[in-house]
Amino acid sequence: MKVLYLDNHATTPCDPQVVAAMLPFFTEHFGNPSSSLHPLGRKAADAVEQARGQVAQLIGAKPGEIVFTSGATESNNLAIFGLAAAYQGSRKRLVTTPIEHKAVLEPMRRLAQEGFELVYLPVDFRGRVDLEAAQRLIDHRTLLVSVQAANNEIGTLQPVEAIAALAREAGAVVHCDAAQAVGKVPVDVRAWGVDLLSLSAHKIYGPKGVGALYIRQDLKKSLLRPQVLGGGQEWGLRSGTLNVPGIVGLGAACTIAEATLNEEVRRIAEIRDAFEQGLSSRIPGVCFNGDLGCRLPGNSSISFPDVEADALILNLPDIALSMGSACNSGALEPSYVLTAIGLSREKAYSTVRVGWGRFNRLAEVPFAIDRICSSYEQLRAENPAAHKQF
Asked: Is 373 a catalytic residue?
């Protein structure tokens, strides 16, 4: 059975060009880049530095500002814990939002248990940060402001540049989890004014298990205390033998993303809009969550009236959808992102997340609409007593 993948956040395959770039480093060029006195080591080291430049090019950074990690989760942890451990001053306030990825929220909560003050910036029904509240809450007591570029569930894009400006005015460090945004929308660390930025390869059709942390050049030596110690790789900030094939794949993915970004934004948004218009015409009362005018091009967060999302997904074996974050699978509670923007528990339980991406085509939209609507109507017919108003 052929499956239509509409879960671009969690089922993104490697681009074939990325795989082709990686393969030689599993077999022919298998040297350790830390052993660069012999040809195999030099070849690996050169490949790592080329990838460093490719990542930097995509986000408007310098190659020397890129530190390779195992992914955005590690990058987030290095940024947050590394800053807290290195800082020796009196600032104790950490500022973030209630809809961040858990790889930001959990480190923040751990630091709150250790004596830091954790403050959440309020978000509106679209998931956008309240800038007036941000101006009040980001002050001289603030050490770190961490705000995502794009939400992984509802797709809302945050006003990172405006928030960073408030943080700089207060003398705070700015971190941005941009795992969902890099390669999907334009990202420019210089224009945004961020000090730290996290990304993952697998979100841009690269391999799983590799990512990077951007660290502004003039802060790199003093800003963070390393969280992984050993051989001193990556300027001592992240020890361990480098994952050369993965890093090469990340670099290749960044180059492809940069070359195709503008056209892909337009094309994927066209697919998403056709899909949402088709659903709206077939299902009265269907709702789309997030900032519909400022979101990721492929994202749809959809609340279906009178059916639960898990039942809908299980009734669609030939379409891959998801509920909430792919990193919260198995959770019995409704999505904390959806409840934070004001959805009731019942409506959150009836919400699915769709992610259109590079390997989807406009011709797939009618099939997706027909299958989802047929499943929805079947579930409603099987359980008419469950019909309710949200």
From this structure: no
